Amino acid sequence: MAHLLGAENVSVSYATRTILDGVTVGLEEGDRIGVVGRNGDGKSTLMRLLASRDTPDSGRVTKRRDVTIGFLDQHDVLDGDLGVGEAIVGAQADHEWAANPRIREIMGGLVADVDWHTPVASLSGGQRRRVALAKLLIADDDIIMLDEPTNHLDVEGVAWLAQHLRQRWRPSVGGLLLVTHDRWFLDEVCTRTWEVHDGVVDMFDGGYAAYVLARAERDRMASVVESKRQQLVKKELAWLRRGAPARTAKPKFRIEAANDLIADVPEPRNTLALTQMATARLGKDVLDLENVSLALGDKTLFRDLTLRLAPGERLGIVGVNGAGKTTMLRLLNGEVEPDSGRLKKGKTVQTAVLSQDVGELADVEDLRVIEVIENEKRVFNVGGRELSAGQLVEQLGFSNERQWTLVRELSGGERRRLQLLRLLVGEPNVLMLDEPTNDLDTDTLAAVEDVLDGWPGTLVVVSHDRYLLERVTDHQMALLGDGRLRGLPGGVDQYLELRHGMESGGSSGSPMAAEGSSARQTTTSAQTPAGGPDRRQARKDLTRIERQLGKNAAQIEKIQARMTEAGSASDVDFEVLAELNAKLSAAQTEHESLEEQWLDAAEAAGD
Question: Can you give the pLDDT at residue 31?
């Protein structure tokens, strides 16, 4: 493969922190590379260096003389005064660019529903992102670099972009480098993964799933080495502690050996360890929207809509931009009154909403992180243990130094983490998340998903992140812009099919409206998985039943422990033992029933 560009021994530092330390990487023809890592570890910095938009403190970046680079910045750089058409194609007449089928396909896939003459400044965030992508993709660059390309895109936009990038070049031609937190997108598009961390870049073959497996194996090997090192540390420290504290006759080389072992301990990765908070008990009734209708201006968002949330339900909501996803959460939270119909709320329900814009932190901008949590409570019950506010914040990934940082000085990802923790310490039993993946890196997302896996209350998630929706929710529903809410037994793929069916005839100011519809139709048919909705639903049932089996097994273990404790007491209370035995029998019967359900679901799923 021909070399396109590379970086040789580049280093970048900001103030006292080293972002990249002697990094050497290269991009070859045919490379499709995803860049992952924690927020602030240098992903965007590395990309900007390779694009020659920034210069390193040391080292150099080289590229082949004839190579051209298209770069999508994370932030909007479009001229807001231009119309959509002029922003994309400049002064070209319609017949000039429309003669190119590749450009027609890009226009149809990204801006078919955008008025061609509307000023860019008046567009929504998602529309501006699609206009910027269209402007970039119509150029015939050798390398495309995309910094968070899925930000503000809906599910359809992400699916179209993945399809386009897969088909844009022949396998051995062109180069793609992208930074994104969208794990589904990484798996769909990338064949290699770079992980940026602690000033270095580790390289892995394959997309996100292959990277996770390879990293797990790397960490396993590292843990074996660390275990051996820890044994040596204990041995040396035990030796140093022997004898009188004032004795100084110990051989100097033994003291130096122990100090070397201790000094060799690597700095811990800034992992997020959110742990399940205590949650208020839910009754039989949770939240019900009954025959709700709501219009905003001339637009009817909901028409006679009914939604009933059950205790422990895990619902994902997808939909077109402007269809009312955020408004539905506000209805469920009682922030918006419907024009007709009603919200029925259970007596024990305590709701918490994670909004898109981190607005919940506006009232604490001048406080420090630790002060925000201490204002809620000073001691927390987490997983049966009592933790101070400082210990809890540290588990969230804030070091001792960052705990005393003012909220207004936090990065986007840190603000998102603090926002989530502030909600959880309130111990709600209904948690509603509006685009929770915004500003979070892949490691943090995985940790948040781990928390949500064990969330005992009712969960409602609005997101365009397919990976997240399929990971943490048991079923999905769609707002299609027609005022109705529809179930999706076939998941996100079924939603895309429904949307494409509705768009058979476009109606916008764009000259590509009709063609955009057919272009998106092709995308969905290629992505519909074999097996159909029934098999997909069976796999979702498997996930749900496995979660219930885990909770049931823990309950059985707890009852057995209580029986052992009661039976070994000096004055055995036989009534308590009988009561515990009845509970144990009921839990074991439920376990057997769940196992049978699991077998049925596994057979239906073909596993």
Answer: 96
CA 197, 402, 446: angle at the middle one, nearest 5?
Answer: 50
Of 303, 307, 315, nearest in space to 290 by CA: 307
pLDDT at 203 over 90: yes
Query: Is 280's pLDDT higher than 70?
Result: no
Per-residue model confidence as pLDDT tens digits over 377-420: 888 766 667 778 888 787 777 878 888 888 888 877 778 888 88
Residue 174 in tokens: 């062109």
Alpha-carbon gap, residue 330 to 311, rounded angstroms: 19
Residue count of the chain, please give it.
607
Q: By the 8 A CB rule, do 605 and 538 touch? A: yes
Between CA 335 and CA 18 the distance in angstroms is 45
CA distances from 56 to 3, 22, 51 (A): 21, 10, 12
**CA dihedral of residues 78, 84, 90, 94 (deg, nearest 10):** 160
Q: What's the distance, CA 393 to chain centroid?
A: 20
Cβ-contact 452, 547 below 8 angstroms: no
- The answer to whether 4 and 142 are in contact (CB under 8 A) is yes
Instruction: Provide the β-strand partners of residue 17.
Output: 14
- What is the bridge-based pairing of β-strands 192-197 and 200-205? antiparallel
Express each pLDDT in 60-104 by its tens digit.
999 998 999 999 998 878 888 899 999 999 888 888 888 888 899
Residue 440 CB partners (closer than 8 Å, separation 6+): 39, 181, 413, 416, 417, 448
Residue 42 region by backbone torsions, left for phi larger than 0, else alpha for psi between -120 and 50, else beta: left
- In 3D space, the residue among 221, 175, 219 whose CA is nearest the CA of residue 35 turns out to be 175
DSSP 225-259: HHHHHHHHHHHHHHHHHSS-TT---S-HHHHHHHH
Sheet holding 458-462, edge to edge: 351-354, 430-434, 458-462, 314-319, 475-479, 485-488
Q: Are strands 314-319 and 32-36 parallel, antiparallel or unpaired?
A: unpaired
∠ CA(137), CA(139), CA(141), 5° rounding?
95
pTM for the full predicted model: 0.69
Determine the average pLDDT of the residues in 577-600: 78
Strands 430-434 and 299-309, by their bridges, are unpaired
Is the distance from CB of 315 to CB of 485 less than 8 angstroms? no
Q: How far apart are CA 522 and CA 105, in angstroms?
A: 11
Return the bridge partners of 506, or none.
none
